Automatic annotation (TrEMBL):
Domain Outer membrane protein beta-barrel: 423-829
Protein name: TonB-dependent receptor
UniProt entry tagged with the keyword Transferase: no
Source organism of this protein record: Sphingobacterium micropteri
Record's keyword terms, sorted: Receptor
InterPro entries according to UniProt: CarboxyPept-like_regulatory (IPR008969), OMP_b-brl_3 (IPR041700)
Length: 896
């Protein structure tokens, strides 16, 4: 490795300026290393560059008549193929003195798929957590809920010194690790090199954040204690203990609060995951969580080397989240000569309990073969109480009533992933085999009460009628799946490589459902079951894929691959009671192609195409007429086919390292054959709608985004600009008529961060969102919603111990169908912090959240699909004041 490091050529470049920031011409820069001695002169723009540097222990000397000499060194541990030096400042010197030795860390280093931030080059307040430090790094954004974005993409996992910290959980790392423990932050475009040959894949890599600890922080115990109380019965308490010992890691964290604060980001406590987040979501200083929450969480993590070549880590987390949400919604469904309107006022109580236990074992054998085993067990228990008061209108027919639904659900789930990578002496040859097993079961008990009074005003004398039904539903679902794959990679020339692959997937689902009519049971004196709603259903999805990929790499700057696969697909389902069998078979021809071209040392361009199958879910195919919600009857279609999507995308990335700039843009087109769409019918003379599903062709979407970040004037001013455009050509059927919904979404965001000095920093943000939707049936209808947001935040340090901060945002909404959507809230938050004790280990904080009490109106949603217009508003956390005390604990090992 040492010989290779010395022979690999490097390029070093930078600028020389004076104390006023003016770039200096004619500066002599001399570079020496173990193998190089080169001298260059800076250009008119103060620019210099060294090429083809091959040695180690690099030293640079900057000299100019009338100025002090500056010397810099580059450590052999942090040498990359492309290095940008920070601006070198030459100070005036009236008389000749001895040379001055200055050592400054390079702030940002770009090396292929890795961006490294050297933390010593940035200034952070003492005792800052990683989350606060990340907000100051160029190209990185942190949203209010803790989601971290790097170059516009969310960070999916966190490592410490190459090992997953707390199972890779992002929030646990960013809200527990102190910034001053960290030597550097690395943003990796990560693909597991053992799971598949990463050179062939056309899938986007995930973003991984790797934290490199300082040498004197690799053996340390640290933790924190937090307690706080506030108005409106707000409270918070949390504790964390962490131990690092040269690769061994142990962590224990827990919290209890009703301020919507969480230490974990494993997904929602139900285990179902949350809505996909995007950097382009329009966020301001609101609390983005609907309802009022009481959260309790506890977790631990352990990682160590069991033997010289065996790594093991395990983590467990428990979260209990009790949520109470109140809201109102309106749903308009347009038909040819009528509109069905459903207005609801509702309150929903959820009590979610979620456990997750995860382990990972990795062993490298003496022959360099690798074995990985990753079991994950989760268990959720959810209670839901749903009360709705609704009014449904259809011309002269009106229903007023209530809908109540209470349920209990438990869901154990086990996933096991196993991988074996065979090592060969021939470079580039690989044999990989993997097996994934999934065992999932669900038990659900549900009590549904549907009662309303219907008034038909069509005749002269209105007709009044009462509808009432009460069902008790018992349902068991089981889903078992297996996925297996084998891949063999063989290089057959200096530039060409072939991959032979085989994938197999099998999914078995079973559903048993019993529905009791409780009103009939009370009337008859015994259990009465509705046979038409009962289900005993088996479903199997099977597909295999045999393919061949060819990779051509004539040189390091270009890579192209083309592949072809045959994918037989079979869906089969069986109703034992009716002795009915449904079968669908098809063979998909799946081409894949892509190339990546490194246009120069700072620019790369890629184009990829990939095809993929998507199977229908249980709601789509279960063959019953479910009228447990009397106003919205669902009928499954067991004859549905699997969807097949075709996606082509192109991405251009450019680093302008001499200026600290980054630009990225992406364009993607996705076409789906056999798209599964809804088929709705309005039942004549009523307010009832019935929905089933069918396959159709014609769906496509087009997506484009860009992002750009750059310093302005100097490193203290950072500008981030991003924008995206999404266009959806969505399809549905209404009364057997094909309906096309075209939706255009555009957003533009700009953020300016300014560090005035070591004691004052500000942030300004502006967002614009356009949501335009139109549908063609029963008549052309358009809805155009606008949202404009302007916000600003400032933080000042009044001396060494006092911090004062404030933030404000103003939103302007217009064009939405419902009046409650067109609101213009103003959000103001403020806080005062006082640090004390030795090394500022204690922090007292007084904060006021939502001083104008307008956040409670911010939970608004809109959705336009088919002939439906849905808009809703939920309550959120309102104004409160809180006092919190935080204590940080650290213990270093005794010096030997």
């Amino acid at each position: 490795m040492g010989a290779k490091a010395q022979t690999e050529p490097r390029q070093i470049q930078g600028f020389v300026v004076d104390t006023a920031g003016t770039r200096l011409k004619g500066v002599t820069i001399r570079l020496t290393s173990t193998r190089d001695t080169i001298t260059v002169i800076s250009s008119n723009a103060g620019y210099y560059r060294f090429k083809d540097i091959r040695g180690l222990d690099i030293r640079l000397s900057y000299s100019m008549l009338g100025h002090q000499i500056v010397n810099r060194t580059l450590s052999s541990k942090n040498l990359f193929s492309f290095i940008v030096m920070p601006n070198v400042v030459l100070r005036p010197q009236s008389s000749l003195i001895e040379g001055v030795y200055v050592l400054k860390t390079i702030p940002v280093v770009y090396a292929g798929d890795t961006v490294q931030y050297n933390m010593d080059a940035f200034t952070f307040r003492s005792n800052s957590l990683l989350e606060e430090a990340l907000k100051q790094l160029p190209g990185i954004q942190v949203s209010r809920d803790g989601t971290v974005y790097a170059q516009g993409k969310p960070i999916s996992s966190v490592q410490v010194d190459g090992r997953k910290f707390f199972g890779g959980d992002v929030l646990t790392a960013t809200r527990n690790l102190p910034a001053d423990f960290i030597k550097s932050i690395q943003i990796l475009n990560y693909r597991n090199e053992l799971s598949a040959d990463k050179r062939f894949t056309t899938e986007e890599p995930e973003k991984i954040l790797n934290i490199v600890l300082k040498e004197d922080r690799k053996r340390i115990s640290f933790g924190q204690l937090t307690a706080g109380v506030g108005t409106r019965e707000r409270y918070i308490g949390s504790a964390g203990i962490n131990r690092f010992d040269d690769g061994q890691e142990f962590s224990l964290v827990g919290s209890i609060n009703n301020t919507n604060t969480s230490l974990f980001s494993f997904g929602s406590p139900t285990g179902m995951g949350e809505r996909e987040k995007s950097l382009f979501d329009v966020n301001d200083f609101v609390d983005p969580t609907d309802g009022l929450n009481n959260i309790r969480s506890l977790g631990f993590s352990f990682s160590d080397n069991l033997a010289e070549n065996t790594q093991f880590n395990a983590n467990y987390s428990f979260t209990r989240k009790k949520n109470f949400t109140e809201g109102n919604s309106i749903l308009h469904s347009d038909y040819l000569r009528n509109r069905i309107s459903n207005e609801e006022n509702y309150d929903i109580t959820n009590d979610d309990n979620f456990h997750r236990l995860r382990a990972e074992l990795k062993h490298r054998f003496q022959n360099q073969d690798v074995l990985e085993i990753k079991p994950v067990f989760s268990y959720s228990r959810v209670y839901v109480w749903n009360n709705r008061k609704r009014q449904v209108n259809n011309n002269r027919i009106t229903n007023r009533g209530t809908y109540q639904d209470s349920s209990y659900q438990r869901n154990p789930n086990l996933d096991i992933d196993m991988l074996y990578a065979k090592s060969f002496q021939k470079p580039g040859r690989k044999l990989l085999g993997s097996v994934s097993l999934n065992f999932n079961s669900q038990r659900k008990l549900e009590d549904v009460l549907d009662r309303y009074v219907s008034v038909d005003s069509t005749p002269i004398d209105p007709i009044h009628s009462l509808f009432e039904q009460r069902y008790f539903i018992q349902q068991r679902n089981g889903t078992d799946g297996v996925r297996a794959s084998v891949s063999f990679v063989e290089p057959f020339s200096a530039y060409s490589t072939l991959e032979f692959l085989y994938n197999y997937e099998l999914t078995d689902m079973t559903t048993q459902r019993i529905v009791e009519d409780k009103l009939k049971s009370e009337e008859l004196g015994y259990f009465f079951y509705v046979d038409s709603l009962g289900v005993n259903y088996n479903y199997r999805f099977r597909n295999s894929r045999m393919g061949l990929n060819y990779l051509y790499t004539p040189h390091k700057t270009f890579r192209a691959n083309i592949g072809f696969a045959v994918q037989p697909v079979k869906l089969s389902s069986f109703l034992p009671r009716e002795d009915m069998q449904y079968t669908y078979e098809n063979v998909n021809l799946v081409p894949t192609a892509g190339f990546k071209w490194r246009l120069n040392e700072e620019t790369d361009w890629s184009v990829d195409y990939v095809g993929k199958n998507n199977q229908p879910n249980l709601l789509h195919i279960i063959p019953i007429r479910d009228n447990s919600n009397s106003q919205n009857i669902i009928v499954g279609n067991p004859e549905l086919k699997a969807e097949f999507s075709n996606r082509i995308s192109t991405t251009l990335r450019k680093f302008v390292t001499s200026r600290g700039q980054y630009f990225e843009t992406n364009f993607a087109y996705n076409y789906v054959a056999n798209k599964i769409v809804s088929d709705k019918t309005a039942i004549s003379g009523s307010t009832i709608q019935e929905t089933t599903f069918k396959n159709t062709d014609g769906y496509y979407d087009i997506k484009w985004y860009y992002l750009f970040n750059t310093p302005l004037f100097n490193e203290n001013v950072q500008l981030d600009i991003s924008g995206n455009t999404d266009y959806y050509n969505n399809l549905s059927y209404v009364n057997d008529q094909r309906n096309t919904t075209r939706q255009f979404i555009y957003s533009q965001s700009a953020q300016l961060r300014y560090s005035w000095s070591d004691y004052f920093e500000s942030m300004f943000n502006a967002n614009y969102l356009l949501n335009n939707a139109s549908y063609t049936w029963p008549y052309t209808t358009k809805i155009t919603g606008h949202s404009l947001l302007a916000s600003a935040a400032t933080k000042s340090y009044l001396g060494e111990h006092v911090t004062l901060g404030a933030e404000m945002s103003q939103r302007f909404n217009s064009g939405y169908a419902s009046s409650f959507m067109n609101i213009n809230p103003t959000i103001i938050n403020a806080y005062l912090e006082f640090s004390f004790l030795h090394n500022k280990q204690a922090l007292l904080r007084l904060q006021g959240f939502d001083l104008l009490d307008q956040n409670k109106n911010m939970g608004t949603y809109s959705e336009y699909i088919g002939n439906d217009v849905y808009e809703a508003r939920n309550n959120r956390l309102g104004r409160y004041f809180m006092v919190t005390l935080n204590m940080r604990l650290q213990k270093y090992p005794k010096k030997r």
